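> call design_seq(struct)
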């Protein structure tokens, strides 16, 4: 039987739901290099349909070592699927294969580069996207991503040049205007306020695009100190975002309460072990976004024994893998309900094996995904040598810092409404209070105000908690030239300062709904 006919029969079985037959036929096709890669993809999809996440991932990983007829398009798709499963190390290795990296297929290079870029694998993304440029590609989206790569690498001038080229090709591109606003602190002699106001006189038809422009204009007016004009832009942006988000604050709060309830059923964790005594020993920086985690990680990154990992998604992904739950969410009810059967040793092994390659040969690695605060119990049971630092701001400042930021990806849906952000912060603090009481001494509480006003003292006690000797250079975060991919990309390249500690006070008269909802948590901050 001709190979093409076999493929058609396998596809027919797949489309008709005859999955056992489809699996048999796709496995037969693995022996033919020209069909082996797509057959692996189909086998991965079949495992997903069965709800078997581990097998779905393993089939995709097997494609890395399967004898295939390599082509740029197929390898680009493989990079995509590996990253969707959190297999970043394998994805990077595939992206570097000559059949893709040296290809002349601009679409394949661009697709793989985009996926690497949005997974914060900046160096690898830059290589592929730059190759597109060398081959003559000149798209607005390409230049925007290249600008983002330059910004993460600390080259502001190159980033601005890429953004300007992107706008020359697509003058109204909302996300590029947002990137230009975030590029630096705007001044009266250099800003884009008039451009943004002109764009908003005839706003885009898509509310999401209008929202981005509103946040950009708010940021620039705020930089200029025109707080009266800035607030309506932020308020409009929040309204637009909230109107389309579909976010359910009640479900979110119930989930946080459920995390606590399930944790009370779990056995106590083993005693803290010596950090760095075996394989990679992680340092988790948790809390809310925009609370100083990037600044703290920059200080860690100057230490001779520590490598900065950034906001890694490996912990929630490996929780799903350990539980074998095929959910795309970082945390949902299915995860929480299943946590009582989580094997801590399996989770610890899986996590370490997935992050070790990022540590660049150093024994310690930071992981600053803010939402990992919900997994504190699991971390302590899975990795007794791990250290956890909870960096936090006072409630009013924490709420406002979340309200004012435009977040990508939808993970912070509470941040578009004053009452909702306050309710979320209350619930988050209650959960952290619970962890502090149940696991005394295992999570260091670090106020951002202390880090900003007395950095050496704050860092010394933080490093002591993490069993790291103090190294004086760690207080000079502006010396860290490493990459930054969060919203703080430019701010954290400055010396540590207190400028943003009470920035909310410029907008105090507009923040009463938030302050009222916070109640006693806000009383000492707003009293005369």
């Amino acid at each position: 039987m001709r190979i093409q006919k076999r493929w058609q029969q396998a596809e027919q079985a797949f489309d008709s739901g005859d999955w056992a037959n489809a699996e048999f036929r796709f496995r037969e096709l693995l022996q033919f290099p020209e069909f082996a890669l797509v057959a692996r993809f189909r086998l991965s999809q079949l495992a997903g349909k069965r709800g078997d996440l581990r097998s779905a991932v393993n089939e995709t990983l097997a494609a890395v070592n399967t004898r295939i007829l390599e082509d740029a398009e197929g390898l680009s798709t493989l990079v995509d699927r590996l990253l969707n499963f959190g297999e970043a190390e394998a994805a990077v290795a595939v992206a570097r294969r000559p059949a893709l990296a040296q290809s002349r297929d601009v679409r394949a290079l661009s697709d793989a580069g985009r996926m690497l870029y949005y997974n914060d694998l900046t160096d690898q993304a830059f290589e592929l996207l730059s190759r597109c440029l060398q081959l003559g590609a000149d798209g607005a989206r390409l230049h925007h991503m290249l600008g983002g790569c330059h910004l993460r690498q600390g080259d502001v001038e190159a980033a601005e040049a890429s953004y300007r080229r992107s706008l020359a090709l697509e003058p109204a591109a909302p996300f590029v205007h947002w990137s230009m606003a975030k590029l630096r602190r705007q001044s009266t002699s250099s800003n884009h306020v008039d451009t943004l106001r002109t764009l908003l006189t005839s706003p885009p038809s898509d509310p999401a695009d209008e929202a981005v422009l509103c946040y950009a204009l708010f940021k620039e007016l705020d930089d200029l100190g025109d707080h009266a004009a800035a607030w309506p832009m932020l308020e409009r942006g929040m309204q637009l975002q909230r109107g389309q988000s579909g976010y359910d604050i009640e479900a979110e709060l119930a989930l946080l309460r459920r995390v606590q309830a399930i944790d009370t059923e779990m056995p106590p964790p083993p005693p803290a072990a010596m950090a760095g005594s075996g394989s990679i020993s992680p340092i988790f920086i948790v809390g809310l976004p925009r609370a100083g985690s990037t600044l703290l990680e920059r200080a860690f990154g100057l230490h001779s024994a520590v490598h900065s990992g950034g906001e890694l998604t490996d912990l929630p992904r490996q929780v799903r893998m350990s539980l074998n739950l095929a959910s795309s969410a970082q945390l949902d009810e299915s995860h929480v309900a299943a946590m009582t059967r989580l094997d801590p040793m399996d989770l610890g092994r899986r996590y370490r094996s997935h992050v070790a390659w990022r540590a660049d040969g150093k024994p310690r690695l930071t992981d600053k995904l803010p939402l990992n605060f919900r997994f504190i119990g699991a971390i302590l049971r899975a990795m007794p040598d791990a250290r956890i630092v909870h960096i936090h701001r006072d409630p009013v400042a924490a709420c406002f810092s979340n309200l004012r930021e435009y977040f990508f990806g939808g993970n912070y849906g509470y941040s578009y409404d004053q009452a909702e952000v306050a309710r979320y912060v209350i619930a988050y603090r209650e959960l952290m209070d619970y962890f502090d009481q149940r696991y005394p001494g295992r999570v260091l509480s670090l106020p951002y105000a202390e880090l900003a006003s007395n950095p050496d003292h704050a860092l010394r006690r933080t490093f002591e908690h993490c069993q790291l000797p103090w190294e004086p250079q760690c207080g000079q975060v502006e010396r860290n030239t490493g990459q930054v991919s969060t919203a703080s990309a430019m701010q954290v390249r400055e010396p540590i300062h207190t400028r943003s500690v009470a920035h909310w006070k410029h907008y105090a008269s507009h923040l009463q709904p938030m302050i009222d909802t916070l109640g006693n948590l806000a009383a000492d901050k707003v009293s005369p």
